[in-house]
């Protein structure tokens, strides 16, 4: 009986990850932004007075040709099945569309940012018209372009009534690119102390053998199936952000795309959030979280006049921040890493144009301030509360 119990206990993590997700979710952090169905309304007793916004850049072309080049090198001249020829055609088509635009914001990403800005303006016009709006951005082009798409929408809504200030550059690295400048984290990221756990999960999860058998009539000599499958997954999963939908993803079977997403999901979980391996990937977001707290304090005290404060960065900006804040769905500690995909999902946390909004509300009746936290324009409850008294939320965030 004891042996049976232990076998069942060992199987629980595998059962937890058995659900097959649709192709759009299996794009993971490359999934286009899931636009909300409606605007958010607040109780009449509360008046929105300030917004802190941290956003990821919108949908973009693939950031690097490396994975594409590796796939093309392996497949060109190889004996391919009909499916293999479709995969190679899809990869070559993506390279042609992306040529000269690697990493650039595309028209879909621009539309995502414009939509988020438009909904903000429509929901909180009193914070935009006749008010001071400020924005900063990472020095990376797609972030600057995202800021421009967002702020130009705000400017049109202002119709000349109000001010708008934008800035970008390396001077904001501590706030939006701390993953690049925190020396302890940079060294940690090179060492990858989570590698044994990730390799173990990959070896048990990867559908590389099946995928290769479906792509090649005869495998090329020296092929690394696991790396090849990961490269194919990247090349196919990034095409939705280019406005091509999930057609490329669906060249894989549901089982293949789900297993490859789970591996990619676990890699980002280990490297960008607090885990039982290390809390450092989340702790590096402390300067940004402190900035969110300080600007809220300053506005309440009358030291800050801007009613909308925008920051534009990367997925690597948001994942650590949301984990450090311990927001539901963004923070998960476990020793059973097979369960991660059921509790922490890249497509839910950081799709393209993902964003955190901390909306500060004032109650004229009580004279108190409250904050609602929205993730991707959807309110989050903490301890059962959606509108949280600022002193209480402040203490929680400071902890």
Description of the structure:
The chain has 18 helices and ten strands. The protein is of the alpha/beta class and 399 residues long. Strands 1, 3, 4, 6, 7, 8, 9 and 10 form an eight-stranded mixed beta sheet that branches. A two-stranded antiparallel ribbon has the order 2-5. Helix 2 (66-75) runs antiparallel to helix 3 (82-98) and helix 2 crosses helix 11 (225-237).
SSE layout and pairings?
Elements: H1 2-16, E1 47-56, H2 66-75, E2 79-80, H3 82-98, H4 107-123, E3 131-137, H5 141-158, E4 162-168, H6 173-176, H7 178-181, H8 183-191, H9 195-205, H10 208-215, E5 216-218, H11 225-237, H12 254-272, H13 280-283, H14 286-301, E6 308-313, H15 315-324, H16 340-343, H17 346-349, E7 355-362, E8 369-375, E9 378-380, E10 388-389, H18 390-398
Parallel strand pairs: 1-6, 3-4, 3-6
Antiparallel strand pairs: 1-7, 2-5, 7-8, 8-9, 8-10
List its salient traits.
399 residues; alpha/beta; eight-stranded mixed beta sheet; two-stranded antiparallel ribbon; 18 helices; 10 strands; 48% helix; 14% strand; globular
């Amino acid at each position: 009986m004891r042996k049976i119990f232990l076998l069942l206990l060992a199987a629980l993590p595998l059962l937890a990850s058995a659900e097959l997700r649709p192709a759009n979710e299996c794009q993971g952090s490359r999934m286009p932004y899931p636009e909300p169905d409606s605007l958010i309304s607040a109780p009449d007793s509360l008046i929105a007075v300030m917004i802190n916004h941290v956003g990821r850049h919108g949908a973009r072309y693939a950031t690097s040709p490396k994975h594409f080049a590796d796939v093309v090198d392996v497949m060109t001249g190889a004996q391919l099945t009909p499916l293999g020829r479709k995969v190679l055609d899809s990869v070559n088509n993506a390279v042609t569309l992306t040529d000269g635009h690697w990493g650039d914001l595309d028209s879909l990403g621009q539309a995502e940012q414009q939509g988020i800005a438009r909904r903000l303006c429509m929901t909180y016009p009193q914070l935009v018209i006749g008010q001071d709006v400020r924005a900063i951005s990472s020095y990376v082009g797609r972030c600057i372009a995202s800021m421009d798409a967002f702020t130009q929408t705000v400017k049109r809504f202002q119709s000349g009534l109000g001010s708008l200030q934008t800035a970008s550059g390396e001077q904001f690295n501590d706030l939006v690119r701390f993953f690049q400048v925190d020396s302890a984290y940079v060294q940690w990221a090179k060492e990858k102390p989570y590698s044994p756990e990730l390799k173990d999960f990959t070896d048990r999860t990867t559908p590389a053998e099946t995928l290769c058998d479906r792509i090649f009539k005869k495998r090329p000599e020296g092929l690394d199936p696991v790396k090849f499958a990961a490269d194919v997954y990247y090349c196919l999963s990034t095409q939705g952000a280019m406005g091509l939908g999930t057609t490329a993803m669906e060249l894989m079977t549901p089982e293949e795309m789900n297993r490859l997403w789970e591996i990619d999901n676990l890699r980002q979980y280990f490297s960008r959030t607090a885990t039982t391996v290390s809390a450092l990937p989340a702790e590096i977001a402390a300067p940004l979280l402190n900035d969110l707290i300080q600007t809220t304090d300053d506005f309440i005290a009358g030291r800050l006049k801007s009613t909308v404060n925008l920051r534009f960065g990367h997925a690597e900006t948001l994942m650590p921040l949301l984990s450090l804040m311990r927001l539901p769905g963004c923070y998960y500690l476990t020793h059973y890493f097979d369960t991660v995909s059921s509790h922490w999902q890249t497509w839910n946390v950081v799709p393209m144009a993902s964003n955190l909004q901390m909306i500060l509300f004032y109650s004229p009746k009580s004279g108190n301030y409250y904050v609602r936290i929205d993730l991707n324009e959807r309110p989050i409850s903490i301890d059962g509360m959606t509108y949280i008294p600022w002193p209480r939320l402040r203490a929680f965030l400071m902890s």
